[in-house]
Specification:
The structure is a homotrimer. With about 110 residues, chain A is an alpha+beta fold. In chain A, about 25% of the residues lie in helices and about 40% in strands. The longest helix of chain A has 15 residues. Chains in contact: A-B, A-C, B-C. At the A-B interface, strand 2, helix 2 and strand 4 of A face helix 1, strand 2 and strand 4 of B.
Chain lengths: ~110, ~110, ~110
């Protein structure tokens, strides 16, 4: 098996207009890099209602992926996103564990 | 550590022409939102043969990601995709577990 | 619950110019298919320094995702990427486990 090390992948899916601010937060927290993918979102992303039968709207979004060897950096980004947007963040944030192949890059 | 809750991420990678039908299935199953990314697929995606040395074809595809707090919703989508396409679904469907930051959004 | 089987997802994020070589490696290793997403990378991806305050550069990249039922195929790809680029690979490689819905496709 390839020699791997556990790491945390943080995914932030949000409206494209939030991209510059999120990027600043990510870099400031100490992540060594991140990747951005353009996509589109539909449904009730960003709304709290489940009554979305009549309002399926589409909008541009980005997914920002950050992989960090130290979970603490991911947590710092999450905290800063929460503090910056005061709960009004239009997007979703989630984490999962991955195995990275070259530990020295993160 | 950031307060998180376990959730299921369902990923459906399929030809772009299937996107509207998949979206209908996702919304009907009760997912509160989903995201779509354009990509391209190559190799023998969709074919059952492993003899692909001479036929590496490229085609447009989409990846539809759905994150649900209840695994049952992901399962309902999988079942409905299977029922709709009768085993002729050209694409791949897989699930993994993620930690979401704001439980109330899903 | 939907009947699923464990599989390995290999993600290779690298500069777009590396795409054809990576694709050759993936197919040669026996993967039955893969998907490619265009994105952009920023930060110090590919550099070993953490002193990136003044050099946040952006560049085009691709994410190549390969899902294999046999972990050995993912490992073979990782080994071949390492052997091909001799440690000078500009990108990141990581693995995680997913549950695939139709085992016979991989």
């Amino acid at each position: 098996m390839a020699a791997t090390t556990k790491a945390t992948r943080l995914s932030i899916v949000t409206e494209k207009l939030n991209e510059p601010e999120i990027e600043r937060i990510v870099v400031r927290a100490g992540a060594t890099g991140y990747t951005v993918f353009d996509g589109s979102g539909k449904g009730s992303h960003g709304a709290k209602t489940r009554d979305r039968a009549s309002v399926v709207r589409a909008f541009s979004l980005v997914k920002i992926e950050v992989i960090v060897a130290e979970r603490a950096i991911a947590d710092a980004i999450v905290d800063e996103v929460s503090a910056t947007y005061f709960g009004d963040f239009s997007g979703i944030v989630y984490l999962d564990e991955v195995e990275i192949v070259r530990r020295e890059k993160f």
